[in-house]
Write a structure and sequence with these properties.
Blueprint: E1 5-8, H1 10-13, H2 15-18, H3 24-36, E2 41-46, H4 66-70, E3 79-84, E4 102-109, H5 117-126, E5 130-135, H6 143-154, E6 160-164, H7 172-185, E7 190-193, H8 201-211, E8 215-218, H9 232-241, H10 251-265, H11 274-282, H12 288-299, H13 303-313, H14 320-331
Parallel strand pairs: 1-2, 1-8, 2-3, 3-4, 4-5, 5-6, 6-7, 7-8
């Protein structure tokens, strides 16, 4: 039986829904309940800010200050983790983490800035912390690119390497292909961070497990950007119900944590509607979709086709100019 490591990232990735405005009661309740549920790793936020959107005015879990970390409740089973994005957080910002309850740092990067990751892995390891690498936007890395990325990561020997389906564009076959490449070129465990834009988060997680994934990311009520992640309570449910998997997670306790999020934390229920599906099927950042809808309307264009063309260019940043340039090319510069 396979017994995957389950990591809950509600306090980190879920902040995309509420600007990381978790109250001290929210943090205490979620950490305490998830620990009692025997979740393996609880990611409590970012150190130094999120790379996906401005977090200068964001709440406490977007920065994980020393004071915030010192106030975390004691855990008896789970390991506590933070995420660091090298493009927004200087490497020296990790120096105080050994004096905190944090035991693990996950370093997140896109395929085009993976070169910045090794320094952070070495620094975190030298501080006595476990390390993870999260390769974001993995749908933008074909097998050849992924092979080169794996070679860069392999030299640093992180404790786990994640593929993150940041745009919710992958199918189970896509997951199997990418996991196979990493398993061929890496010696460390492989993790999967699945988004649900195409309704495939759970299916992709199961495909990943069959392909050799060892770690799964999830968040309570699927709380995250856009269509959200694999839901922690659903991951705990299928790991409990399916005899081919083993888990020590207490499903009833996980569901208690999910009920708290649904009733006290989420500003609105997570949904998978037109905007979320369009971002997934066209393979671009969810934050593009509102821009695509508005700018396409000015040019009298079909936003689905505009989105398809934008995804095909694999844009590195969410910018109005990218959408306008595509629309300009499609119409010869004529607005509706």
């Amino acid at each position: 039986m396979k017994k995957p490591v389950l990591l809950d990232c509600t306090l980190r990735d879920g902040g995309n829904q509420n600007n990381w405005e978790f109250t001290p009661t929210d943090v205490r309740t979620l950490v305490t309940t998830l620990d009692a549920a025997r979740i393996d790793v609880i990611e409590v936020g970012y150190r130094g800010g999120s790379g996906s959107r401005s977090s200068a005015d964001a709440g406490i879990t977007a920065h994980c200050t020393p004071e915030f970390l010192a106030a975390l409740p004691e855990v008896h089973h789970a390991e506590l983790a933070v995420m660091v994005v090298p493009t927004v957080c200087p490497v020296q910002a990790m120096d105080d983490l050994p004096d905190s309850p944090i035991g693990m740092v996950r370093i997140a990067a896109y395929p085009w800035n993976i070169a910045g990751v090794p320094e952070y892995v070495r620094a975190a390891r030298n501080l006595g912390l476990r390390t993870g690498v999260n390769l974001m936007a993995v749908s933008y890395a074909d097998p050849a690119e992924l092979t080169e990325i794996a070679r860069t990561i392999r030299a640093e020997q992180p404790d786990v390497c994640y593929v993150a389906d940041s745009f919710g564009a992958l199918t189970p076959d896509d997951v199997r292909t990418r996991v196979a490449v990493l398993r061929e070129h890496l010696d460390c465990p492989i993790g999967l961070h699945a988004h649900n834009n195409l309704g495939l988060a759970a299916a992709n997680a199961l495909a990943g497990l069959d392909a050799g994934v060892d770690w799964l990311d999830a968040s309570l009520c699927a709380m995250a950007r856009g269509a959200g992640n694999l839901a922690t309570e659903q991951a705990a449910a299928f790991l409990t119900a399916w005899p081919k998997y083993a888990t020590h997670t207490d499903l009833a306790q996980v569901c208690e944590a999910a009920e708290y999020v649904a009733e006290q934390v989420l500003p609105r229920p997570m949904v998978v509607r037109r905007q979320e599906i369009a971002a997934g099927i066209n393979d671009h950042h969810y934050y593009y979709q509102d821009r695509i809808d508005k700018i396409s309307a000015r040019y009298g264009l079909d936003p689905w086709e505009v989105g398809r063309r934008i995804g095909a260019t694999r844009p590195r940043k969410v910018l109005d100019d990218v959408v306008a340039d595509v629309c300009h090319e499609m119409t010869g510069g004529h607005t509706a």
